[in-house]
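User: Please fill in residues for this 272-position structure.
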C-alpha cells in the first residue's frame, strides 16, 4: 500500500514546497487537496510539479471551499474529476453535502450526481470515494450527546450503505471518527469493505487532525488491523498545519518524516 502526504497538511505553503517535503520525507506520493489558493494553477502545473519531484499524485481531494471560477458544490466535484482524468490520478475524494442531523444529507440529489460522475469515469480506472465527516461541533458540547449516540452509529451505517448502494468507495477519516466518540476499530469494521483511502491523523477529544501518536485514537491498532486485512489502498497523512508546526519549515518537514515513520513502523514495512 502507498503512504502519501496530503497537501492539506501544509496548505499555506506554495505547492512546490509541499512536493519537496513529500520527496525528502520519503512519501510514496501526494494527495492534492484543491483549495482556494491552488485551484486555478492548472492541471499542467500540477503535472509539472509531480514530474520535477518524482512524486506522483495518487489522490485528488475535490474542494470543500469556494474556488473562484469553479462553480457550485456539484460543479467543483466535476472539475476535480476532469483534472483527475487529464492527469490519470487514480482516486478522487469528495465531502458529501452537510446539514444538521443526520450529519450527512444522503439524498436523491447526491445519488443522481454520483450517477453522472460515474458516467464520466466509465472508461477510466479512477476510484470515486465519499468521506465520513465529523460530528457537528455544536453537538459535541451538549451534555445530552450520549442520547444521540445511536444516531451517530446509524448515520455511520448510512454512509457505508450509501457507498455500497451507489457502488462507490470510502475515504475513511480517523479524526472525524474521533469526534463522534465511536470506537475507531468499530467504525473501521463498518466501512472496511469499501475503504480505498485512509485519512490518518489523531484526535485528543478536542483538537482534530493531530500528528499520529499525539492524541487518544488507537492508530497503531488500526494500522495493524489494516495490514492483517490485506488492505491495498492508500494511507494519507492528513494533519492540520498547526500540528505540523508549519510556521517553521524545518519542523514541518521533520514532523512529516516522523509521521511517516510512525505509519510505516505500525505497518511493519521497511522505510524508504
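Assistant: Residues filled in for all 272 positions:
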Amino acid at each position: 500500500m502507498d503512504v502519501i502526504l496530503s497537501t492539506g497538511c501544509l496548505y499555506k505553503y506554495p505547492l512546490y514546497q509541499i512536493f519537496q517535503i513529500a520527496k525528502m520525507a520519503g512519501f510514496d506520493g501526494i494527495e492534492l487537496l484543491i483549495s482556494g489558493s491552488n485551484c486555478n494553477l492548472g492541471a499542467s502545473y500540477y503535472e509539472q510539479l509531480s514530474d520535477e519531484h518524482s512524486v506522483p499524485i495518487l489522490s485528488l481531494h475535490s474542494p470543500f471551499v469556494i474556488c473562484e471560477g469553479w462553480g457550485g458544490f456539484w460543479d467543483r466535484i466535476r472539475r476535480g474529476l476532469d483534472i483527475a482524468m487529464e492527469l490519470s490520478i487514480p482516486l478522487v475524494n469528495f465531502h458529501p453535502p452537510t446539514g444538521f442531523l443526520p450529519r450527512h444529507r444522503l439524498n436523491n440529489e447526491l445519488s443522481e450526481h454520483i450517477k453522472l460522475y460515474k458516467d464520466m469515469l466509465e472508461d477510466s480506472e479512477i476510484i470515486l470515494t465519499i468521506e465520513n465527516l465529523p460530528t457537528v461541533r455544536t453537538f459535541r458540547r451538549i451534555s445530552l450527546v450520549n442520547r444521540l449516540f445511536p444516531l451517530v452509529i446509524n448515520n455511520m451505517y448510512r454512509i457505508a450503505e450509501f457507498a455500497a448502494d451507489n457502488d462507490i468507495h470510502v475515504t475513511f477519516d480517523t479524526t472525524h471518527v474521533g469526534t463522534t466518540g465511536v470506537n475507531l476499530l468499530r467504525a473501521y469494521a463498518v466501512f472496511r469493505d469499501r475503504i480505498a483511502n485512509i485519512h490518518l491523523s489523531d484526535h485528543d477529544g478536542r483538537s482534530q487532525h493531530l500528528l499520529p501518536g499525539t492524541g487518544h485514537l488507537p492508530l497503531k491498532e488500526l494500522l495493524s488491523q489494516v495490514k492483517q486485512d490485506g488492505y491495498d489502498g492508500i494511507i494519507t497523512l492528513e494533519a492540520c498545519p498547526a500540528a505540523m508546526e508549519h510556521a517553521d519549515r524545518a519542523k514541518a518537514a521533520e514532523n512529516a518524516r516522523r509521521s511517516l515513520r510512525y505509519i510505516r513502523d505500525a505497518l511493519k514495512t521497511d522505510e524508504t
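For context: The chain has one domain: 2-267.
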